[in-house]
From TrEMBL:
Protein name: Zinc metalloprotease
PROSITE patterns the UniProt entry points to: PDZ
Stretches assigned to coiled coil: none
Domain of life: Bacteria
Localization of this protein: Membrane
GO molecular function, one term: metallopeptidase activity
Ranges for domain PDZ: 195-262
Membrane topology: Multi-pass membrane protein
InterPro entries: PDZ, PDZ_6, PDZ_sf, Pept_M50_Zn, Peptidase_M50
Membrane-traversing stretches: 95-119
SMART domains: PDZ
Length: 454
């Protein structure tokens, strides 16, 4: 239920902003707006101040909206209102009205990203947990307890890293562009700086999916190897483990963080036998504990478990920015995500990226629900990203989208004459067919994700 509510609220905000962009610029250009509708289909609610005013409606199907303007191509227009018809406006005004919807979505994203940067939030420090054994990060020399101080793309200036969140987007960009990401590392206190080079070409994929990120093998934030809640009758309880125990080593191997501890427990199932010999610290005392993990079978995999929570919360820092810097961050993030979305669309078109990247309403609803559960900050961040995606999507040069209409106006500007009705009709049909294909593919991807088939 939360997923549906969060999805409908997000969709409503994005549609409202997009259509208000068209509406406000149309009014500014002197075009008469007949109807402003959220949703399609049967009208559930309407309001109109006078017979000559704009009618505002809420319709039954919430997957879109529209602004209906006075236009001689859609019906007869009284002679005294011809100057207010959309089709009689100069080319530059018609183009501005069409472009205003996507532009409004980009402006919303800028405002949301800037607001989030100003408000700030507690984010994990950029102190890395254990990298995945054999992954690119481990081969490059990353170790548990390393702190990322700065990063730089090949040939670019160093950027300071305030928290682990600052690392996420540059990693995704470097993977999709198959470029090198340089990291300036130090110990947890910022001493002993050194540089680490991550060449994403070694990953063999431009897709920042789970498999590629697994081959990269970056650890999450460093968490101390502390035992949390212990389930009764599990391996941890049988061994006498208690909440708050700090694990020092297992079978003589020093345990540096929770990720390494989980890996050692899980790996027991590959060669089960005698109990693992743990040393733990409890209330200032170092104690030996023999732990024999339970073995679970998941598909073809055998996994060791102790039936206890593992890992203390990561250390966090409040990251916030003054208004001027926040606005710049909002602009930068909107530009970066717009550029990345365009690149992904382009690569899908030429076959360099998988069509599985397309997502539909089910995936978006799941993401909205998960973000809403985490908190308002995450929900607003998702809303900003969706607004960028909607803006870019509508600017694609496809008939039926704003970008398609802008292509018509480009032709008109270059040739001095509008696209003929014959071509308009056929292009609209082709655009409708393409949109159906995209929607069907996105929905198919949603279903396969739900079924775990991707």
């Amino acid at each position: 239920m939360l997923e549906l509510l969060a999805f409908l609220v997000a969709l409503g905000v994005l549609i409202l902003v997009h259509e208000y962009g068209h509406f406000s610029v149309a009014r500014a250009c002197g075009v008469k707006v007949l109807r402003f509708s959220l949703g399609f289909g049967p009208v559930l609610w309407r309001r109109q101040r006078s017979a000559d005013a704009t009618e505002f409606t809420l319709s039954a199907l919430p997957l879109g909206g529209y602004v209906r303007m006075l236009d001689e191509r859609e019906g007869p227009v009284p002679a005294e209102q011809r100057a207010q018809a959309f089709n009689n406006k100069p080319l530059r005004q018609r183009a501005a009205i069409v472009a205003a919807g996507p532009v409004a979505n980009f402006l919303l994203a800028i405002v949301l990203f800037a607001l989030l940067a100003m408000l700030g939030q507690q984010e994990p420090l950029a102190v890395m947990g254990s990298p995945k054994p054999g992954g690119l990060a481990e081969r490059a020399g990353l170790r548990a307890g390393d702190r990322v101080m700065a990063l730089a793309r090949e040939g670019q200036a160093w950027q300071e890293v305030a928290s682990l969140a600052d690392l996420q987007w540059p990693v995704i960009e470097a993977i999709t562009e198959q470029s090198v990401l340089n990291l300036q590392m130090a110990d947890a206190q910022g001493r002993g700086r050194r540089e680490v080079r991550l060449d994403m070409r070694e990953l063999g994929s431009r897709e920042p999916d789970a498999a590629t990120l697994g081959r990269l093998g970056l650890g999450g934030p460093l968490r101390e190897p502390v035992i949390g809640k212990v389930e009764p009758d599990g391996a941890g309880a049988r061994a006498g483990l208690r909440t708050g125990d700090l694990v020092l080593d297992i079978d003589g191997v020093r345990v540096q963080d929770a990720a390494q501890l989980v890996g050692l427990i899980r790996a027991y199932a590959q060669a089960p036998g005698q109990a693992q010999q743990w040393r733990i610290e409890r209330q200032g005392q170092v104690l030996p504990v023999a732990v024999q993990p339970d073995i679970d079978v998941e598909g073809e995999a055998r996994i060791g478990r102790i039936r206890a929570a593992v890992g203390a919360p990561a250390q966090t820092v409040l990251v916030s920015h003054p208004a001027g810097d926040a606005l710049f961050i909002g602009l930068r993030k909107t530009w970066e995500q717009s550029a990345m979305t365009v690149k992904v669309f382009g690569r899908m078109l030429i076959g360099q990226a998988s069509l599985k990247n397309l997502s539909g309403p089910i995936t978006i609803a799941d993401a909205a629900g998960q973000a809403a559960r985490v908190g308002l900050h995450q929900y607003l961040a998702l809303l900003a990203m969706l607004s960028v995606g909607l803006g870019v999507l509508n600017l694609l040069p496809l008939p039926m989208l704003d970008g398609g209409h802008l292509m018509y106006y480009l032709f008109e500007g270059l040739s001095g004459r509008p696209v003929s009705e014959w071509w308009l009709e056929r292009l609209q049909r082709a655009g409708f067919f393409l949109m159906l294909l995209m929607m069907a593919l996105a929905l198919s991807n949603d279903v396969t994700r739900k079924l775990g088939l991707h």
